[in-house]
Amino acid sequence: MNTFIRNSVLGIAGLAFAGGVAAGPMTDSTPTTVDTTPVAAVAVQADKPAVDKAKLVPHGVQGAQSHVDLSDEQVANVKAIIAATKKAGMDERAAVVSIATALQESKLENLGHLGDRNDHDSQGLFQQRPSSGWGTIEQITDPEYSTTAFLKGLKQVDGWQDMPLTKAAQTVQVSAYPDHYAQWEQQAADLVAEHWNS
Questions:
Q1: Cα separation of 162 and 38, whole Å?
Q2: Rounded to the nearest 5°, which phi and psi values hold at 32?
Q3: Across the chain, which distance is largest between two alpha carbons, in Å?
Q4: Quick check: 168 and 67 in contact, CB under 8 A?
Q5: Residue 42 is inside which H or E element, if any?
Q6: Which neighbouring-strand residues pair with 123?
Q7: Residues 181, 41: Cα–Cα separation, whole Å
Q8: DSSP secondary-structure letter at 183?
Q9: Per residue in 42-60, pLDDT tens?
Q10: How confident is the model at residue 190 (pLDDT cuts 50, 70, 90)?
Q11: Could you give the residue ranges of the DSSP H alpha helices within 65-179?
C-alpha cells in the first residue's frame, strides 16, 4: 500500500512537473524592463552631441575629490546653473567651475540665512552677500540670478579658462578657504556631462 501511494504521489508530481515545463513558467525570475520613452524622444536624445569631457577638466583634478549624493532639489539647482550658463553664452567649463563652486559653498542647496551658523550675511547657492554688492536677498537666493552674478565675475577674470578650477573660483569668490573648490571638480564635471544636453 505504501508503495502504491508513493508511486501515485510521484506520478502526480511528475505530471505536474511535465505540465509546468510544457506550459512554461508562471513567473519569470529575470526582471523585464519596458522602455516607455516615446520614439521621438529617443531619436532627439540620440541626435544630441556628447559633451567633450576633455573640455570639462582640461587641467586634471587637483587633490582628493569629494562627492555628495544629490536630492531632486539639488539636481534642479544643477540644471538651473547649466541653463544660466548657456543663457550667458558660456561653455561647459564655465558650468563646471560654477557647479564646483556651489558644491563647496552650499552643497547645491539654496540656503537662506542660517542665523548664528551663517557666514556673515551669505546666502543662496554661491553664499553671496548682499552687503558685498551681490544683490538683494531675493536675488541671490534665485538660482538663475546668483549663477549669472557668479559668471559675470568669472568673465572678468582674465584667462580663467586656462586656470585651475580652484584659482578661477577663488578669484571670484574670495573665500577664506581658497583651495577647497578643487575637491568638487570631478563631481561637477560628471554633472555637466550628464545634464548639459538633457
A1: 41
A2: -105, 130
A3: 98
A4: no
A5: helix 39-47
A6: 128
A7: 36
A8: G
A9: 334 445 677 777 789 887 8
A10: very high
A11: 72-87, 92-106, 137-140, 143-155, 165-173
